[in-house]
């Protein structure tokens, strides 16, 4: 079943032979045995899928209106939404990708985590309450509040779709690798299963199902990660220093085993305690930092979460809970990653004959679960990690679909005269289409590191949605033309620089050197967006520009006080 | 074109005071967060060895307490804002909304 690689087949057969004696099975615990006795994983996985389908069924009965479908009727509390946001955020990229990053390079993984987190306070201070006071279903409601609807909505929808697609690919790749490892299913089948399940959730359960799947998974994941981190720390007498020291020893040992001299190996081992291999030059560091911080504030599926709560106060509360849970989770991930270095990197059970991690680099946390809790816990963690991906994928798909149905179809195409029923139908068709595209791209991008793909999504969001949203909220003289031109310029430059960057130009397209040598485009693309919005708005003398500027006063008062913002539940 | 209720609220001295106070507080917190984070990123960009330097006799480097500190700072600033907003700003916006007939 597992696309047998000849080189791997021999040891696997040998393990199966030894596994005949129980003692040998315990000490070896290798590939052949895993596939045979992985019933706990499969059962827990099945239990989770059943649970979520149950939630979906329950939610489907409650999903009657457009508001129910897009935003759960605005009836989610701040605490619930905070958990759901944390759920959206603790994605496969965070759990698998960051722990894998730490497993490979040590400290660099923490740099990722911090960047992912620091956007949240900014969202709270500048945007969360205003979003709740101005919008209904999508962030485009807010971005286009006082502007000409068709152009701004079209921009917002297209930029949403591109962000969602990159993010989706990352999640789907993670899910595919996970199922492939656990069940021995070929990767494409695994990807198709993910695509089908998430389509079911979104299609029938809308935002209510998506939110509750997200909450259940957030609780499970937090519990799981807490247990793993505690188990790792327990082995080191709850001394982080002892854990780090052991990790440094392991990395030193690996380096000298690979043929490095003593001092070189020691340097290699110590390098995991500081930033290094991943972020090479100052421009990449800054650019990357900007993408993570401001990208959060432009992610459509995250912004959409602020419309699921009844008022500004609950929006605020959601951010506090979300920030707390996410911060806690990232600290756990750090411990888990270092734990994996010590417990996984030296254990031949988790490595293929070439010394690489079985199942791909993203599987460090999953192997660690096996190392500390055995097969049963491995099953549980895998089911949770898979649930994580499903839930995030559902949230992403929903926001992509509402961009098409609410922004493109209902507002641009039908000029706001669409029947709610037709709008919902368009949304559901889009869900299916998005799932198909995501599955295809997921298969195409199998080998990419998932955290990297997510950082690209962040770069796009930081270069398009974020500047558009922040200037339309806070700058009086901003105009329709400015927003559309600036947002488009930012997104296009981000895309272009990404294609020209080493990850695509060299690694995928096979050119000699990258035309854009840095790993993230944001340092250039985000300022370009701001600059173009500013310049075009300033020069804009059109009649529409006058309306845009005049609309600011009302928008401002409404965004600050919530006057005129009827509760979402009443729509 | 303009909404009467919004225009009236805009003239209200309490509204003006709220916007000024909240704006200043939010901007201050934003600056603190930006400074802390980009300070950290600049350290990564220009002085990696500093972050990699052990803080005691062991291997734990300066970068670890700094990094974890930024995570804690983000949560703390968020909590600070929410507390202030719940205690202080909400009363004003509620009064303004009530007078606007909501």
Structure description:
The complex is a heterodimer of chains A (571) and B (102). Chain A is mainly alpha-helical. Chain A has a single domain, classed as Up-down Bundle (Sodium/glucose cotransporter), CATH 1.20.1730. Chain A is 77% helix and 0% strand. With 102 residues, chain B is mainly α. Chain B has one domain. Helix content of chain B is 82%, strand content 0%. The relative contact order of chain B is 0.14. Classes of the chains: A mainly alpha (571), B mainly alpha (102). At the A-B interface, α8, α12, α14, α16 and α25 of A face α1, α2, α3 and α4 of B.
Observed structural traits:
heterodimer, A: 571 residues, mainly alpha, Sodium/glucose cotransporter, 77% helix, 0% strand, disordered N terminus, disordered C terminus, B: 102 residues
List the helices and strands and how they pair.
The complex is a heterodimer of chains A (571) and B (102).
Chain A: H1 6-18, H2 22-28, H3 31-36, H4 39-62, H5 66-71, H6 78-89, H7 92-105, H8 108-134, H9 139-143, H10 149-183, H11 187-235, H12 240-257, H13 262-270, H14 282-296, H15 300-303, H16 312-343, H17 364-413, H18 420-444, H19 450-463, H20 465-474, H21 480-500, H22 502-506, H23 522-539, H24 543-550, H25 552-561
Helix pairs in contact in A: 4-11, 4-17, 6-11, 6-16, 7-8, 7-10, 7-16, 7-17, 7-19, 8-14, 8-16, 8-25, 10-11, 10-17, 10-18, 10-19, 10-21, 11-16, 11-17, 11-18, 12-13, 12-16, 14-19, 14-23, 16-17, 17-18, 19-21, 19-23, 20-21, 21-23
Chain B: H1 4-11, H2 13-46, H3 48-52, H4 63-99
Helix pairs in contact in B: 2-4
């Amino acid at each position: 079943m597992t696309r047998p690689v000849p080189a791997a087949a021999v040891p696997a057969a040998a393990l199966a032979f030894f596994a005949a004696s129980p003692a040998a099975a315990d000490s070896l615990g290798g590939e052949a045995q895993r596939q045979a006795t992985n019933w706990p994983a499969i059962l827990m996985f099945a239990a989770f899928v059943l649970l979520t389908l149950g939630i979906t069924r329950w939610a489907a009965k409650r999903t009657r209106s457009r508001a129910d479908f897009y935003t759960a009727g605005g009836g989610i509390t701040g605490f619930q939404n905070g958990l759901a946001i944390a759920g959206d955020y603790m994605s496969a990229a965070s759990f698998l990708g960051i722990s894998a990053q730490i497993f490979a390079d040590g400290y660099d993984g923490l740099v990722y985590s911090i960047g992912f987190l620091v956007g949240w306070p900014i969202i709270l201070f500048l945007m969360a309450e205003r979003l709740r006071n101005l919008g209904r279903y999508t962030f485009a409601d807010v971005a286009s509040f006082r502007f000409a609807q068709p152009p701004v909505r079209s921009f917002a929808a297209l930029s949403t779709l591109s962000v969602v697609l990159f993010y989706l690919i990352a999640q789907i790749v993670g899910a595919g690798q996970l199922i492939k490892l656990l069940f021995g299913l070929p990767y494409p089948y695994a990807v198709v299963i993910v695509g089908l399940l998430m389509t079911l959730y979104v299609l029938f359960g809308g935002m209510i199902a998506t939110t509750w799947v997200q909450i259940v998974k957030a609780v499970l994941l937090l519990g799981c990660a807490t247990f793993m981190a505690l188990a790792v720390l327990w082995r080191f007498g709850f001394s982080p220093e002892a854990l780090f020291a052991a990790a440094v020893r392991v990395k030193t040992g690996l380096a000298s085993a690979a043929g490095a001299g003593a001092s070189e190996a020691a340097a290699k081992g110590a390098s995991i305690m500081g930033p290094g291999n991943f972020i090479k030059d100052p421009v990449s560091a800054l650019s990357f930092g900007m993408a993570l911080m401001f990208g959060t504030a432009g992610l459509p599926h995250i912004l959409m979460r602020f419309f699921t709560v009844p008022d500004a106060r609950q929006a605020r509360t959601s951010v506090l809970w979300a920030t707390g849970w996410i911060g806690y989770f990232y600290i756990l991930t750090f411990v888990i990653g270092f734990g994996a270095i010590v417990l996984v990197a030296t254990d031949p059970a988790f490595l293929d004959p070439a010394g690489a991690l079985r199942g791909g680099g993203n599987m460090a946390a999953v192997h660690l679960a096996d190392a500390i809790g055995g097969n049963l816990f491995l099953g549980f963690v895998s089911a949770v990690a898979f649930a994580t991906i499903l839930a995030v994928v559902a949230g992403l798909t929903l926001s992509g679909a509402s961009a098409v149905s609410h922004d493109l179809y209902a507002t641009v195409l039908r000029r706001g005269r669409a029947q709610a029923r037709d709008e919902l139908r368009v949304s559901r068709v889009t869900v299916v289409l998005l799932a198909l595209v995501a599955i295809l791209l997921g298969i195409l991008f199998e080998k990419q590191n998932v955290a990297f793909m997510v950082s690209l999504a962040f770069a796009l969001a930081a270069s398009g949605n974020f500047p558009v949203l922040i200037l339309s909220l806070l700058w009086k003289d901003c105009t329709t033309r400015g927003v559309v031109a600036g947002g488009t310029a930012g997104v296009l430059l981000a895309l272009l620089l990404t294609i020209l960057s080493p990850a695509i130009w060299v690694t995928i397209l096979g050119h000699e050197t990258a035309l854009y040598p840095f790993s993230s485009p944001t340092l250039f693309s985000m300022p370009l967006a701001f600059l173009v919005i500013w310049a075009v708005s300033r020069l804009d003398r059109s009649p529409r520009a006058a309306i845009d500027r005049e609309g600011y006063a009302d928008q401002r008062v409404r965004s600050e006080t919530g006057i005129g913002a009827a509760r979402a539940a009443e729509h | 074109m303009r909404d009467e209720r919004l225009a009236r609220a805009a003239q209200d001295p309490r509204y003006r005071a709220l916007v000024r106070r909240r704006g200043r507080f939010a901007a201050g917190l934003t600056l603190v967060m930006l400074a802390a984070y980009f300070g950290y990123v600049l350290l990564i960009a220009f002085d990696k060895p500093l972050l990699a330097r052990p803080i005691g006799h062991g291997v734990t480097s300066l970068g670890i307490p700094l990094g974890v500190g930024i995570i804690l700072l983000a949560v703390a600033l968020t909590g600070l804002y929410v507390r202030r907003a719940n205690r202080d700003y909400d009363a004003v916006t509620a009064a303004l909304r009530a007078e606007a007939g909501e």
